Amino acid sequence: MQIERLPLTITPLSDVATGLRPALSKNYATSSVEVVTCPDLRSTPFYLATQGLSGDEKVADVGGQPNLFPNPRLERKWDMLELARGMEMDIDRVDARGGLIGAGAGPCHAVGRNCELVPNLSFYQPRDGELEVDNKTCVAQIKDGMPRVEKSPSRECALMVNLFGSRGDPGPVLKITAKKRIGKEKSFTECIRRGLVEAFGDERMISLGGAFVVRSGICHYHIMPDFPPQSKGQDYTWTTAKELNDWLTYHDFSAKEVGPIVCLSVLHSADPEKLGLRMEHTHCASMEGKAAGGHYHGDVEGEEEVEYEGYFNTAKTMYRIDRPEVTLERDLHE
């Protein structure tokens, strides 16, 4: 792996909370940002593989959208434990423990078709014995013409992935809530990201990772379908971003109908070192066995008022891994 390491300026969580409040209050009728002790995220409704989001916090941007557009590069795939090693998570040290969450492209070679990855795993290295891994990672896919959410059969990802890593300890985090959108920004995470830019400028890089739950309302998601049967993937070519986005399948899921939808997210306020970062990436899945999930775009205006509750932490180090030779100027899926 080719790894670029960037230490980040540490911004106190209290300062981040103060900076975020104006953007959220402009976009939602009710919102709050406070520093709290992280609840046990292993329990309902989050079902994460780690208890918390603290301890040696870091983020990684692996691969990127140029591995999909204009031609898929299906040979670009990684084991998430190897990525943890690349992120200097001391995975092989005795008593080492940690976890990864985030958003990426699933292991189509293992699943049998394209899919959206919802990374969610933890590891522990006991004094005696092999590394213990709890892989709760899910994939959202189109199977038999319908959305499906299933446990991933693999620890691998492909094409691109954005990860937040930590020891998974309990500790102080940002608790962010919002209810009833009144502004124009449909995306909860993009509202947070733009709030960081407004508060701290676009030359100071603040990276957040965390999980939020859609408690009520309808949100909009996409899921990659498989390539046409006659294509081998690499032979598939898009000439414009619109053509690629038209190829995706789009779905609106109501929390009233499918229950809480858990979303795992990594976002950055800026990319001052021009690393070709994905500035915001969020993938979601129903953790209660419902066929709902995918790449999160935002809420859908309607009769159901959206409500979010999320827990985030800041990263101390950024790892840019296997950056494509050519990077895109903007997210293909804005």
From TrEMBL:
Pfam families: DUF1907 (PF08925). GO terms for molecular function: hydrolase activity, acting on ester bonds; zinc ion binding. Its main location: nucleus. It comes from the Eukaryota. Keywords: Hydrolase, Metal-binding, Nucleus, Zinc. GO terms for cellular component: nucleus. It is found in: Nucleus. SMART domains: DUF1907 (SM01168). Residues 19-321 form the DUF1907 domain. PANTHER family: ESTER HYDROLASE C11ORF54, PTD012 PROTEIN. Monomer. This is DUF1907 domain-containing protein. It comes from Lophiotrema nucula. The lineage of its organism: Eukaryota, Fungi, Dikarya, Ascomycota, Pezizomycotina.
